[in-house]
Each structure stands twice: as structure tokens, then as C-alpha cells.
Amino acid sequence: MPSPQTVASGPEPHSPREPVAPQIPAQGTRRASSEDASSAHREGLGPGLGTFRRAFSKASQRASGCAPQEDPGLLRRSSRFLFRSLRHALDDGPAADQTQATTGPGVAHGREVPSRAMDGVSPQSSTGAGPAELEGEDKSVADLITERKLLAAFEQLRHLETRLVAEKASRTFEQDPTGFARRAMDVCLHYDGLAAEIGAIVLETLGPDGVDAAVLAELARVVRAEEEAHPEPPADGDFLRTPRHWRQHWEDAVRRSAQGRVQQVSAGEAPGAAEGASGLAQLLAELGRLVRRDLQKVQLEVHPAYAAAGYPAWEAYLRAFHGAVAQRLQELAHDARGCEQLYVLLDWASNVYSSPDFLGSQDLALPSEPLPPLLAPDVWARLESDYTSFLETKIASCFDGILQVEQSRWVAAEAPDVLQGHYHTPLSIDVRMLVAEHVKAAGAISAELEATTLRICARALGLFLPRFEKAFLESGAVSEPNLCANINACEEFRTHLLARFPGSLEELEKPLVAATCAFQKRLLQGLQGDVQPLFKVLCTKAWLTQDVLQPLLDKVVAFAGHLEHVVPPRAQETLQEVHRYVVREYLAQALRPRERFRGVERVSGSQKMGLDAQAIGNTFQGLGSEATWLGRAIPCVADILGETYKDDIRRHLETLIGSYPDIRRDHVLAILALRRLGRRRNQHLLTHAQDLLRAAAKAGRPGAAGGHVLFEEIEVPTSMDVLITCI
């Protein structure tokens, strides 16, 4: 068997034989001779092709069952080049005959042909020598291919190719041009059989039985040998010396092998036919296990065998499986339905398959060029869009479920729990977990999907809060503990959600404030309904001799007990509002008294108001109210009412107007009417008060200062005493 070097160097030199002078028979004789030679060659070609077909049939049966269809281009290319070359041979026939007729023996195209190139046979006999050469001394090329002795088979084919090209160049086939075509076809068919065996080996490599490492190494060497033997297309277009592109054929076989392996995973089962998201997740998990197992086998067994022959295989297999997985995932994405299935696909593509731990090894060589995206950008965008559409519906449905749970609690009259000293409702945890769960899941896919999910959650929660507020206030479960628990829930939304996702949930601020204010207002309305009747006995003659304020303050203290279970910011706001309400209602009763005090009663009333102001201040100070600005209102009115030195009333008015810029002229008139100072003094004090109010307005302090509102909400009726004061 010739070695590759022997094949490359052509026939070995021997002692030249005497050239055989060709005879030029008559036309009838030439036709008969040609027919005899053609018949003789057909008889000799039969065993070679038959042997190849039998051997190739065995190889095909061995690869049947799971083998993908081989590339038909191999036979098409061989046939195309064959018939093109055949036309050239037929076109050159007459010229060759004339040349031989005019030249001497052993001369072709003006040069002498070595007799060794013909192996000592005549042109007629050489046309029938193909099968004997393909059979070889011991085994035929077909048998070598069947036994997967690929390099030996290629060396024989290369040797036969070299001899056949040399015989063509020496015009051996002038008498029978079709003889060259038949022998060339035989060589091409064996080349194609060798290529088919390469594809079969690739297919079996990742199968259950695998392929021996020596066979893989020989496959790599034979591909390299073919590339060295046929580096580029010949200038004369000779199809026998045309590159066979076995490396490309090997890569195509690797891709087909990877596609076949990937498609075997739950073949024919669409995600809609699976049991929802769990069925799809199981399918993807099985796909991941197969890809991981196959690539680990490539890394540990296949790649070293190829690398020993200087042939890189890892990147080819990696890209082949990447493409096969991408194709399979795109098929699954086309039929995915529902929020859960879409998320399973997105999560598997971005977190499982793309994870550096997917193959279980960190030291794998990366491809020379980055792998393309697993899903095309338009497919990925469509999946995210479909997912967010389903997510909007799902989150809205979740909020509906949360509202139903809360309503069932209201019907059951369940009291809120006290956790860490605060009233607690499951509403807070349910909503926070709902938002955090979906945002975290989306963030695992991409930052863009996380931002989109945040907007969806914020919009859904913004729509939920007014519904929840309305449903609760219209239910029969309105009570101080439940109201306080809902206030705490709104505050937890603000502190946890808005603080955790800064810059993303600003649109929630307005509905949260509105819901908190609504619950606080309803809480205060309950207290006001309890204590409002107690204000009616203030500033009466019975009030001068009885402690009618204490029952009112007792109710305030009891109410403040619920505020101890409210988060501090909202508890302080509510407590200050109660403080302001008590002072405001006290002043309202003082400015429109049911009974007028004169002389000693007026002085006693002034002293009583001072004592009440002190009691109110001490009570709210003990409860922790920080509304110290309210402490001067009642004492100022009491001082004006009981002042014996009338000129000091001007000073008390200045203190009152300076502390409470929202006081109006009507309030000053009502206070002066309580004192009955006389027309001239009243006019003087009223004018001075108006000057102070105008000065405050010019100084930019009109109305309430610092958001403090007290007198502005006190309605003062126009009575006869006030009219007299104005006159």
C-alpha cells in the first residue's frame, strides 16, 4: 500500500520499456475494437463497483435508524465534474487521433510518455484495470472503508487518482474516452463512500456505544490528508483533483448530529400539550441534561482524540449544539402560552443555559468568536412583550384575590394582630411579597424586564388602593384597630416598596397619601362623634362650677391608646390633629357662648379657661403631642377676657395675631364682644388689629403660618353683640 508521500510523488521510476507503437486500424476495425474494449471494461468494472456497493450497503445499514440523510451534493459534485471532464475528453479525441497518426511511436503531444505510467499495459488493457486496482492486493477500498481503515482507503484512492490522472495526461484513453469516465466514476464513488463513512462516524460518536478514539483520530488525519492532497481546484478543471471539502462535510455532520440529539428530547411534544409550565420546565431540564452530558463527553473524550491529530473539535461541537438548542428553543417559544410558560422559557435561556456553571466546568476553552444569541432579538422581544401582557392580567387578578381575602376577614370580624407593638394586617405582607416576587423574577431575566414589571406593579397597586379604601370604609368592619392597621399598611408600602425601588414607584405616592388621609380622617371622625356633645357644656354657668372637661380628656386618652399601635410618623400626625381639634372646638365654644358673663363671672370664666388650657396642654404633652404651637391660643383669649387693665388688651391682641396669622377680623370682633369695652376702645383695638393683619400679609405670612391652621376653621356667627362692637 503506498504511503501518502509515495502517492504525492507519483509513480516510482523503473527501467523504461520499449514504447509500443499504436496501430491505426480502419474505421470499421476501430469501432469493433472499441466496442470490444468497452465490453471488456464493463465486465471488469462490475466486481469493483459491486464490492463497493455491498460494503457501502453494510455501512449504511450500520448507521441506519438514526442517521440523518447524507449530503447529496457529494454525488452531484462528482457527477458534474465527471461529465464536464468527459466532454473535454470526447472533444479532444479526434485531435489525438490525428496527432498519433502523425507522430512516432511512444510520443504524445510532442513528448515521450514513460512506459511505467501505464504499468506495462496497452491502452486497451489499461481501461479495464480499474477494478483490480480498487480491490488492491489484500483488501478492496470498500472493505477498508467498511473496516474504518480510513487512512489506508484514502491512500489507495489517492494512488489510483494519481495514476488515473497520469494516464489521462498520456492520452491512454484516446481509443476509449468513456473508459476514463467509468474508472473516474469508480474512484469518485469510493471517495463519496469514504465521506459517507465520515458522517456515520460523527453520528455514532455521541451515541450510546460511542466510537473508539483511534477511529476519531484517523478521521481527523484523513480529513487533513485530503486537504493537503487537494489544496485548491486545479487550473484545468480536472474533477478528480478538485477539493472534496471534507472538513465542511464533517462540520455539517456535527451539526446534523447535534440537531438530531436535541430533537430527540420529547420529540413532537409542544409546550401546550405538556402539563403547563411544569411540563415545559421538565422538558427544558431534560434538554439541559442531554446537552450538558454530550458536551462533557466531547470535552473529555472526543476533543482529546481529535486534538491528538491536530484537529480542533470542541468549538465545532459547541457551536453545533448552540445552534441546535437555539432552533429547539425557538420552536418551543412559538407555541408557548401563558405567563408561566413564557417565564420558564426566558428564565431557562438567560439563567440556566447562559450560566457559566451550565457545563459544570469553568476551564472550558471559549470559542474564538462569541456565540450568537440563543434567541433572535425579535423573538426575545416578542417573548418579553407577551410575558408582560400576561403579567398585567395576572397581577390584576392577584390584587383581586387579595381584596377578597381582606373582605372575608372583615365579614369574620377578625381583629388585627399586634406585631412588634403595631397593629398588623396581612394586606401589607401580601402586597409586598407579590411585588417583590415578580420584580425579582423579572430582574433575573433582564434589567429592562425588571423595570417594566415595576411599572406594571405600581400601576396595579395604584388602582388597587382606591378600591380597597372604598370597600373597607363601606364595610361594617370600620373600627379603630382596623383603621390603624390599614394606616400602618400604607406606611409600610411607602417605607418598603418606595425605599426598595427608588425612582421607580413615585406614582404610588399620591394614592398612598390619599388612602392614608382617608383612614386618618375616618379615625378622627369616630373620636369627634364621641366627644362633640361634651363641648356644648363649656363656657356655661354650670361649667364655672363643674369639671366638665375631664370626661372629654378621658376619651382623648383612650383614643390615644390605639395610636400607640400606629407607626410613629402617622401616629404623631393623628395625635396632633386630635390636639388641634380639641383646641379649635374649645375656642369655637368660647367665641360663641350660650351665656354672657359679666363682672365676677367674667373673671371666673377667664380663670376657668386658663385652667382648662393648662389641663389640655398637660394631657397632650403626656401623650407625646409635638404641636406646642397650640398652647398659646386659649390662654390669650382668657387673658383678654379677664384683663382688668384695659390698655394691656392691646398687648394680648398683638400676641394672639402674631402667633396665629390665620385669625380674621371676625374673630377679633367676637373676642372684643366678650369683653364689652365700649365703642371707642373697641374701634381703636379693631383698627390696630387690622393694621397687624395687613402687616402680616405684606410680610408674606397671610393665613396659616408654617401650615398651622386654627382660627381659619372656626366659624363665628354675626350676633347683636358683635354688631354693637362694630358700631
Helix content bin: 55-70%
What is the CATH architecture annotation of the largest domain?
Orthogonal Bundle
Low-confidence stretches: 1-133, 270-274
Our Rg estimate from Cα atoms comes to: 52 Å
The end-to-end distance, rounded to whole angstroms, is 139 Å
Number of structurally distinct domains: 4
Q: Strand order, main sheet: write it out.
A: 1-2
Task: Please report the first level of CATH classification, the CATH class of the largest domain.
Answer: Mainly Alpha
CATH topology of the largest domain: Tetracycline Repressor, domain 2
Beta-strand content bin: under 5%
In short:
GO terms for molecular function: SNARE binding. The protein has 727 residues and is mostly helical.
Description of the structure:
Residues 1-73, 91-136 are annotated as: Disordered. Pfam families: Sec6 (PF06046). Residues 32-44 have a biased composition (Basic and acidic residues). This is Exocyst complex component 3-like protein 4. This protein is mostly helical and 727 residues long. It has helices at 4-9, 27-63, 73-102, 123-126, 130-135, 141-146, 150-169, 177-205, 213-229, 246-263, 276-308, 314-335, 338-352, 377-411, 426-445, 447-473, 480-500, 509-535, 541-545, 550-563, 568-591, 600-623, 633-642, 649-659, 665-675, 679-698, 720-726; strands at 107-108, 111-112, 417-419, 422-424. A hairpin with a 2-residue loop joins strand 1 (107-108) and strand 2 (111-112). The relative contact order is 0.05.
